[in-house]
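Most newcomers find our protein records easier to grasp once they have seen one. Read left to right, the backbone structure tokens trace the chain's path through space. Once this layout is familiar, the rest of the handout is easier to follow. The record below serves as our worked example for the rest of this section:


***
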Amino acid sequence: MSDLNKRTLSLKRTFNAPIELVWEAWTNSEHIVQWWGPKGMKTKVIEHNFKVHVT
């Protein structure tokens, strides 16, 4: 697990929201810090390297 290039994070969530809004929330780091953790938790994005992986 020490090789950062071999780490993968896969998440599956269902949201009752327009797909454009969900896409914006997941792909924009300014939005991620608002909802990633529980209310009151401060989140800091150090690096946001978003890539689409199609299988």
The two ends are 23 Å apart (CA to CA).
